[in-house]
Amino acid sequence: MQKIREGVFEISKEGAMRAPARIYASEGIIEKTEEGAIEQLKNSATLPGIQKYAIALPDIHFGYGFCIGGVAAFDAKEGGVVSPGGVGYDINCLPAETKILHKFGYHKTIAEFEKTWQKDSIKIFDAESGTDNSEISLFLKKEEKEKLIKITTKAGLEILATREHPFFTKNGMIEAQNLDKKEIAVFPFQGVAFEGPSEKLIVDEQQIREKYPGNQNGFNQIIAILKKNDLLPLKENNPKLPILAKISGFIQGDGTLHFLKKGGAIAGFYGKKQDLLEIKKDLKTLGFASVLYSRNRHHKITTTYDTIEFFSEETSLHSSSRALISLLAVLGCTLGNKTKKDVSVPEWILNSPKWIKRLYIAAFFGAELTSPKIMPENKFNFFSPVLSLNKKQEMIENCRQFMRSIKEILKEFGVKSELIAERKEFVNEKGEISIRLRLQVSSTPENLEKLWSTIGFEYNKKKTFLANTAVLYLKLKQKVLAEREQSVSFAKELKKQGKNLEEITATINSPFVNQRFVERSLYEGRKTKARIAGCFEGFSEFLEKRTMALGETGFAWDEIEKTEEIPFNGTVYDFTINNANHNFVANSFLVSNCGVRLIRTNLKAEEIKPHLKKLIDVLFELIPAGVGEKGKIRLSTDELGELFSKGAEYSVEKGYGWKKDLEKTEEKGHMKNANIEKVSQKAFQRGLNQSGTLGSGNHFLEIQEVKQVFDSAIAKKFGLFEGQAVIMLHSGSRGAGHQIATDYIETMLRAMEKYKIEVPDRQLACAPINSEEGQSYLQAMNAGVNYAFANRQAMTHWIREGFEKVLGQKAEDLGMEIVYDVCHNIAKLEKHEIEGKQKELLVHRKGATRAMPAGRKENPEVYITTGHPAIIPGSMGTSSYVLVGTETALKETFASVCHGAGRAMSRHAAMQRKRGEQVKKELEAKGQVVKGASWAGLAEEMPEAYKDIDEVIASVELSGIGKKISRHSPMAVMKG
User: Fold this and answer.
1) Nearest-angstrom CA–CA distance, 437 and 420
2) Which of 214, 308, 791, 912 is the most exposed place for a label (fewest CB within 10 A)?
3) Which of 270, 244, 241 lies closest to 324 in space, CA to CA?
4) Do 390 and 399 touch, CB atoms closer than 8 A?
């Protein structure tokens, strides 16, 4: 890093950098800047089409992909790219040992995915279809040296996460730091640990030849198909083998395989439509077509006890691929009528890693094992699951051996089972006797929990749903039983201390330990272990309550017992996934992945100080603030589409503000190249209820006093004077903008492969500006910017209403006009001089403020001779500034200055330093009025968490890119 001049430092091109990197800051700020942020700056200099420099302003700090406080401009005509990470995005993380559930029912730690994520697919939640699977678009990691949040549920599930990591609750995705005692979605199935498969050969051509009954020509065709589908030779590490394990297990249950006499073949699968569609999807992945059929059938079954007749709709899936049938036969699936043929667990399954065994047996159980079912005479206890098979009498020994193999596999998973009495089932018209063989799984709670949480079911959504909820029920039941057992020992100790029955019961203080239980335990003697309390809810009631709004997805509601902060110093990780749901299962939990406006008044600060507390209270009532807070504006999807398209214009049309407000808003509050067709449904959903809300984090509303004017002529043009009361509003596009970035990160990752773009960090995912992907993102991003404009416009209206209510004067008479509204996170097409020629560039500003100097057409007409105001908020409780850009900024930083003080301390560290109550007390001691949506929000935004705003602004002036116009001090602040 070399000093170019005072306040400007440059890093020369090295490695893959296409341009130098520049930092506009004082030496003091440079010394305190984290290495990770400087590395991000250098990485951004590697992007195609970058012009002049990759730039960092004095508020530089670590971000996602690009550093925050970063600026980069790209040639809009030739070779330039657009990157969502260069506009604004956050990551939230989990520690290395967090277990992530794979689509094949095994788990790996999140750190283990680093080497395999590009070919992995993980389990996610889909509100419509239940569970689904998704590929991973991006693997993320960063160093974390602060405390994590540990979440423990009443069922005993635990997870660690960074404070901002979202978890799915009944109120939507909520950050870990704000969870409290909320109900939280869990997927109780845990599966087994991953074990890498070997290169052991499972199937070769000779084995296919031995099973295929047709001629040489047909055999050659089969071999060609299997090779084309990457199924021959078939080794244990073939990525399609897990699917074949599932298919094989199901075939041995509710499936059939037949070679037909005239050379045809049929594989039949029988079950419910939703389950057969999963099999159909898997067959397609293997490379085989299949057809779904449905018909009404009349059944007549004669047993030893009775003849049963009934009608049913039979749904079946058929594939006529001889290649598929030949392969399944070699893999050990029975050809023909299974009641008359040998059945066995294939040798290759018995010798496979445990997770592959699980796929086979779980699919077999999906077809054949009884569903989790409660005893009618006891609402707390489950029937023993039973596996039943019918065999012709002469095949009975073969079936016994098959059942013993299943029993041994269950034992390997720690699940106890026993063969129970065989019985004659029925005699057919030919006099052939069928015998029913049964394997019964032990019904102890520990055994059932192990069965359903480690093996579970495949290809049977109903059984999966019941089993998952039953696992949660059993965990809670076992906890209550343990509590009752422990209470007996405690009661005996209390009795020794001389306490009576009532006092003992009151001291134990548990809803599951009543006086009668204590009395029996102490005085009557109990020969058995404690039974479940009568007040404990039955499974049927539990099932209804714990799956409400989740449906039969396999997810259920657990309750958070406690959250606590845990010291941490290490690496944390996260995923971006290729699915609109943007969630995944970690440790059984379901987890996911702005701008500023200044309003003037005619009032002097002294006139407003007596009313500050009432003003903030009224504004707090009028403007929703905080994490996930819903707005007062109720929009239909069509209305939200109009808002996305028109921005602040929409708000003004609906009565939120004055038409002249638009003249002093960047782009007049309306990015014209917005296209709602490029905005995902998920972004629409997140935007529906948050319009007109302040949000949380560094977003705020402040009533300020103009303490100092540095250029009276320009200040007068801006309508500012010393001693004046003004209002600063900092807020953005809320969840809608974040969702747009999330959606297009995945699009860009695919685009980089398509356009052969290589970057040193995949967080810099990008696409050529003029590509379909690049244009789609820009159109969606513009819709997000419009949302932010409309958001601040609505809040401006309520600020005016609040002042009118408290001061008893009209907002017009109070002179409550907008000074300016400028964006902080945006990519915009602008013309700048490059090597003496005007070029159209796409300028990315991430945590940076546009500061066009005098004379540029981008300025509002009223500011054409001065340049528009660049509004730079400080941290809570410190000064804020208004600047104008200079010609130097135009030439060197693409007319950009900083956007604030810039964080110097993480939110985690801030909360360790002070409590929110202490921050409020200290600010109030300085005469400021403070109101926050949460104590945590105040603590993490304390002034010490940010760089010294005065030093940051001094750096801007030192480097010559900005000029101070006024300095403002806070009188009252409202935080989300």
Assistant:
1) 8
2) 308
3) 244
4) no
CB-based contact 782:674 (threshold 8 Å) = yes
Res 359 pLDDT > 60: yes
DSSP string, 649-714: HHHHHTTSS-GGGGGGBGGGG--TT--GGGS-HHHHHHHHT-TT---STT-EEEEEEEEEES-HHH
CATH of residue 98: 2.170.16.10
Domain identity same for 734 and 880: yes
Residue 609 C-alpha from the chain's centroid: 44
Q: Are residues 577 and 633 in the same domain?
A: no
Q: Is it the case that residue 926 has pLDDT exceeding 90?
A: no
Q: Is the dihedral of CA 224, 227, 231, 234 positive or negative?
A: positive
What are 117-150's pLDDT values in tens digits?
888 999 988 766 677 888 887 777 777 777 899 9
Taking a C-beta distance cutoff of 8 angstroms, is the pair 968, 892 a contact? no
Residues 46-57, mean pLDDT to the nearest whole number: 96
Asked whether residue 632 carries a pLDDT value surpassing 90, the answer given is no
Same domain, 534 and 560: no
Rg (CA), the chain: 34
Give the total number of structural domains in the chain: 4
Q: Which helix (H) or strand (E) holds 35?
A: helix 35-44
Please identify which of the residues 165, 797, 824, 899 carries the catalytic annotation: 899
Closest residue by Cα to residue 324 from 293, 372, 289, 297: 289
899 has catalytic annotation: yes
pLDDT confidence bin for 11, thresholds 50/70/90: very high
pLDDT at 814: 95
Q: Among 84, 87, 113, which Cα is nearest to 100's? A: 113
Comparing C-alpha atoms, which of 316, 320, 318 is closest to residue 273? Answer: 316
**Full domain range(s) for residue 733:** 595-904+946-975
Each residue's pLDDT tens digit, 520-559: 888 887 777 888 888 899 999 999 999 988 889 999 999 9
Mean pLDDT in residue range 233-238:
97
Spatial contact of 76 and 842, defined as CB atoms under 8 Å apart = yes
For residue 281, how many other CB atoms are within 10 A of its CB?
Answer: 12
